[in-house]
Amino acid sequence: MLIVQKYGGTSVANTERIKAVAERVARTAKEGNKVAVVVSAMAGETDKLIGLARKLSSDPNEREMDMLLSSGERVTSALTAIAIEELGHKAMALTGRQMGIITDTVHTKAKIEKISADRAKKALDEGYVVVVAGFQGITEDGSDVTTLGRGGSDLSAVAIASALDADLCEIYTDVDGVYTTDPNIVPDARKLEKISYEEMLELASLGAKVLQTRSVEFAMKYGTPLIVRSSFNDNPGTLVTKEDKDMEKVVVSGVAYDKNQAKITVMGLPDKPGIAARLFKAIADAGIVVDMIVQNVSSDGKATDISFTVPKTDSKKAVKLTEEIAGELGASGVNLGEAIAKISIVGVGMRTHSGVAAQMFETLAKHGINIMMISTSEIKVSCIIDLKYTELAVRVLHDVFKSAEVK
Ligand code: ASP
Ligand code: MG
């Protein structure tokens, strides 16, 4: 088999951990597999480098940030290759450039355009384990180093797995896999044996931090099977794969929460065509991603209210823009609520089962939790609630849905 193994920051946090990684890699290779390894920077290293740059500038040049941040992964790739060689196995570290990862030119959040994996393939054929520095690439003309956004090594791994046509992509981290919810809140949260790409995508974008969202999108697009597992033990982990019949039997696979949203409400907007377009165009043009939107029916046919959510980090900017437009449109006011959380239940089984949303609302109501906004997709129901009820909501929803298996 050809296996890609990605090791996150905690898995390569120090030389002892790197030795443990090297042992696992060597074992996998000795079992007769070709192994391509992708590594993150040592835990905390990327943040440390960002901190250093911020000491010198409040707004450091993004090209230089990519030069700086890509160094973290370069260090771990070389150290990991050295540790593997020490175990008597041939290993070769490769930077993003040497791996042939071509990206666009958007520094600090570049997109992978293609991978020319010839060099890596040749090295694998010659019996080397290749150890690729994650999170980085090179622009098409070869002139600049780019990075793929925070958590981007997951994406490197998935993209490399598809370029090498790997049989499997294993994502090693410090947890045993994907859980039904955050085990810090619900101690009896269960590890899932498998989950569909779509569910994982919802959970990842809802803040379940095990996999970077873009990496899941990429894996889904190319059908690369992923396994999320721990590098600290030999437990089997969670398989992220195509949806199958079994998965539909489980109505709710996971309960997720997101405390990083803020809610903006515009009151008394004129109820006529073009108003929402105007408001959300301005927000989009500022590069702010809107998540939920709710517009009320106007009772008098003249004025209406619109509420929407944005990432907390963009809330000040979004409010300023909204106030400007509200002024021009003659709205009666704008307010910002930051003490909110988004609670979501996710499961492909919702497609075929009714009453799931109602049960969620009833459960929240029973515990006196008010719902401020609701949004749904085919496989998800999300509610905005008061921030202080986040943990309670996660607990009671997990409890209600944990045994919701269909007979
Ligand atoms: N080191 C980078 C980060 O912390 C990339 C990664 O770990 O995936 O975001
Ligand atoms: Mg990571």
Task: Summarize the model shown.
With 407 residues, the protein is an alpha/beta fold. It has 13 helices and 20 strands. It has helices spanning 15-30, 45-56, 62-86, 96-99, 118-125, 153-163, 197-205, 213-222, 245-249, 275-285, 315-329, 356-366, 390-401, and strands spanning 2-7, 34-39, 91-94, 101-103, 112-115, 129-133, 136-139, 145-147, 168-173, 194-196, 226-230, 238-241, 254-258, 261-270, 293-295, 303-311, 333-337, 340-346, 373-377, 380-386.
Report what the structure shows.
The chain has helices spanning 15-30, 45-56, 62-86, 96-99, 118-125, 153-163, 197-205, 213-222, 245-249, 275-285, 315-329, 356-366, 390-401, and strands spanning 2-7, 34-39, 91-94, 101-103, 112-115, 129-133, 136-139, 145-147, 168-173, 194-196, 226-230, 238-241, 254-258, 261-270, 293-295, 303-311, 333-337, 340-346, 373-377, 380-386. It is α/β, with parallel strands linked by helices and 407 residues long. It has a domain at 2-174: Acetylglutamate kinase-like (Carbamate kinase). An eight-stranded mixed sheet has the order 3-6-2-1-9-11-12-10, with helices on both faces. Strands 5-4-7-8 form a four-stranded mixed sheet. The longest helix has 25 residues, at 62-86. It is globular, with a radius of gyration of 23 Å. It starts with a strand and ends in a 6-residue tail after the last helix. The mean pLDDT is 94. Aspartic acid is lined by residues 9, 40-41, 46, 72, 134-135, 150-154.
